[in-house]
Amino acid sequence: MGRAWRWGLTVLVAGFLLWYGSYYTTIAVWELRKLFSWFALPLMALGCCLAAAGLAHWLRRRAGRRGSGTAAPLLVWLGGALGLVLAVGWLVYGSYLQDRAYMATAEIVTEPVPGLSARSPYVVGKAQAAPHLGDVTGEISDITYLPDSDRFGALVERRGWLAGYEVGLVQEVPLGGTGRSQERCSFDVDRADARISGWFTHNLGRKISAERRWVRFDAGDAYVTCSGGTPVVVVPLKRQTGLLVVTERPAGVALYDGRTGKLTVTSDTSAVPGPSYPLSIAARQREGTAAVGGFSDWWFERSGWDASEDGANEGNESEFTLRYADTSGGSAYVTPLTPQGEASSVVAVSTVPTRHQGGSLAPMTVHRLSPAWSSPKALVALIKAEYRDVCCYNDDEVFEVVPTGGNTWTATVGSEQNIRYRVEGRGPVDGREATCLKAADGALIRCGYAAPGSPEEQELKRREQQKQQEDAAKGSGSGGDPGDLTRLSDEQLAALQRRLGDEFVRRLKNG
Question: pTM for the whole thing?
């Protein structure tokens, strides 16, 4: 009876520890699985050599030859050397296979990027969050662009070790226009007292692991939304797949209610009010483009692309969340890409949808650009040179240079509190970078060089013709100088000649 009681108590304690430690066991399984994928093949080779050495030694003893001999130690040394060679080789080749696995859904096309809507830069959304928090004492832990509502969501942590979040702020940061609506929704600090990386039972990751084992998340993927005054923390989840080549896949989302503290883990992401595909997986897919060629090209970095890391995009150079310009309501993680090596021109743009159903990788599309763009650093210098009257003085600067569809890019100009202008470009046309200055709301002001046949060139021609007509009408109406005749169109010049002839005939008749 005593032995059964001890065994039962041991099982209960072990079960409690496994339940309570679900968060740590999940982390341990993830890390051990990654380690196994790197060292499984070398360890198996070493094990085979050791087994062969043991078998040889056993056969020698069975045959009556009890001398130590040299076969067993030699096989051990050979096994160790073979295991070391396989370990180094597999660490290299395994990385290549991992990149290839993330490239499984990639498609490289020459079609232009679909039309994308420009948005306020991330740093502007971050700078404008703090002034709108009012008397909140917490600290901003995350800023995320929510493409569905064209707003920025800020998640504010409550101060203290055993505390969760304090408020969620969803604000409109318009790129042009005067609307600056905002919604601040408070957490119930007694019922919803968990946060990512919190302590003990206040750890949101622990709650997620207790609800669904063997899934993890990246803290940078989480964000907050406000629904009817209720804050909801959305955490896109990930799972591991593979044995020798371990990769990550989406695994639904976790929704944490900021009023009731209820946690819901679901695979149906259609109703999620924002991105449901983990941004960290999209970034890993983009990094996997290095394996677009063969192993030798991957090893010597002769294939694939890197995120542009200079100029205005430094520190925020990849996975821009942008809405499509059509009425579909879709959005994508968009990244300007440069070739590996010293070249810094933008030669391609990658897109990964922010929403994806199922547990497979979302499709990634790499759009090759023709013509290629100059580097963001060169574009910033060009903007400062061509539009020096509007950039850059006082606190004004050039923010994110992001793709906005087709072959166009958009850079925003202004301060963190007030976006004043945007500059749109199309890449080098006839050997010259085509750029146009527009107001923040998109109204055309002027062009440094308008690409032939572009809407900007047509608008400038229309304005010029309208001005010529107004000047001609003003000159003829006042009876004075008709203005510069070289600026008149053929129709306007013919009309002026007819009026001149009529005036000559009238005066001759009157003597």
Answer: 0.82
> What is the DSSP track for 272-332?
-SS--S-HHHHHHHHHGGGGSS-HHHHHTT-SSEEE--SGGGTTS-S-EEEEBSSTT--EE
Q: Dihedrals φ, ψ of 306, to 5°?
A: -120, 160
Say if residues 176 and 241 touch (Cβ distance below 8 Å): no
Query: Phi and psi of 436, rounded to 5°?
Result: -140, 140
Phi, psi torsion values for 119, nearest 5 degrees = -140, 170
Here the tokens at position 45 are 């080779």
265 burial via Cβ count (<10 Å: 0-12, 13-18, 19+)? middle
Tokens describing residue 195: 């946060």
In the block, residue with structure tokens 């395994």: 94
Backbone angles phi, psi at 310, to 5 degrees: -125, 170
Distance CA(151)–CA(120), nearest Å, equals: 9
Query: Which pair of tokens denotes residue 390?
Result: 């509007």
Amino acid at 364: M
Looking at residue 330, its amino acid is G
Q: Is 323 in a helix, a strand, or coil? A: strand
- What backbone torsions phi and psi does residue 118 show, to the nearest 5 degrees? -70, 155
Residue pair 479/503 in contact (Cβ under 8 Å)? The answer is no
- As beta bridge partners, residue 266 has 253
Burial of residue 1, with CB atoms counted within 10 A of its CB: 0-12 exposed, 13-18 middle, 19 or more buried: exposed
Output phi, psi for 445, to 5 deg: -105, -60
As given in the structure block, the two tokens for residue 229 are 């005054």
Separate counts of helices (H) and strands (E) for the chain = 10, 19
Q: How far apart (Å, rounded) are the C-alpha atoms in residues 139 and 68? A: 69
Question: CA 241, CA 100: separation in Å to the nearest integer?
Answer: 14
Question: Could you tell me if 96 and 385 are in contact, meaning their C-beta atoms sit under 8 angstroms apart?
Answer: no
Instruction: Judge whether 499 and 482 are in contact, CB under 8 Å.
Output: no
* pLDDT tens track, the chain, 511 positions: 566 666 667 767 666 666 666 788 888 888 888 888 887 777 777 777 777 667 666 766 766 655 445 556 666 676 667 767 777 778 888 889 999 999 989 999 998 888 888 888 888 888 888 777 877 888 888 888 998 888 899 999 998 888 889 999 998 888 766 567 888 899 998 899 999 988 888 899 999 998 888 999 999 899 999 988 899 999 999 999 988 889 999 999 999 999 999 999 998 888 888 899 999 999 999 999 999 988 888 988 888 888 877 666 665 668 889 999 886 778 999 998 888 877 778 889 999 999 998 889 999 999 998 888 888 888 888 888 888 878 777 777 888 888 887 778 888 888 887 888 889 888 777 778 888 989 888 888 888 888 888 888 888 888 888 888 777 776 555 444 555 666 677 777 777 777 887 777 677 766 5
CA dist., res. 225 & res. 184, Å (int): 10
Residues in the chain: 511
